[in-house]
Amino acid sequence: MAITPYAHPILPLVYNSDLAAIGDPAAELPERFSYPPDVAAHLTRAGKVYQAHYGRQQRGLWPGEGAVAQDIVKMVADAGFTWMATGEHVLAKSLGMDGFTRDSQEVVQEADALYRPYYVRYQDGPQVAVFFRDLRLSDLIGFEYSQWDGEKAADDLIARLQAI
Question: Are residues 149 and 75 in the same domain?
């Protein structure tokens, strides 16, 4: 199970608002804001809520809006997270790709690149696994299958997973 930082902040922007330029070099940035202690507080507080409800320490982090940055990896690891998840567009950009290509059945052609964990660390800090979600599958599961007949939705999901 993954949790989101307390109050759903965009952690990289709380850490340093100038990081927005990495994701969008043309972005018009506000006056620089940087308050790393808030990043740590959101991670710690989310962990305490998880602990109170489930009686164990969290391991997975689903950052608000899938926002990740190399600069926050050490803080994520220090808060006890061993993995985090984000979207395929982040991986594509990290690999120098415009995006993942799909065939006529919407199957990602670069499956070996997308469907595996990557391991990151900030400088010599602890390692964190990063998983990247398939945006099409995620949209189907999160928004579209609920409008389908249950059996057809399940069959479609299984067929897509088998095609991958």
Answer: no
Whether residue 69 is found in the same domain as residue 99 = yes
CB 91 within 8 A of CB 118: yes
| Structural domain count of the chain | 2
b/e sequence 12-35, b meaning 16+ C-beta within 10 Å: bbbbbbebbeeeeeeeeeeeeeee
**Are residues 56 and 81 located together in one domain of the fold?**
yes
Strands (E), the chain: 2-3, 60-61, 83-87, 118-120, 128-133
Instruction: Write the DSSP assignment of 113-149 as a string of letters.
Output: HHSS-EEE-STTS--EEEEEE-HHHHHIIIIIGGGS-
Residues 18 and 44 in one domain: yes
Q: 127 and 140: one domain? A: no
pLDDT tens digit string along 95-125?
Answer: 999 999 999 999 999 999 999 999 999 888 8
CA angle 65, 91, 110 (to 5 degrees): 130
Q: What is the pLDDT of residues 17-73, one digit of tens each?
A: 999 998 889 989 999 999 999 999 999 999 999 999 999 999 999 999 999 999 999
Domain that holds residue 164: 135-164
Total-model pTM: 0.90
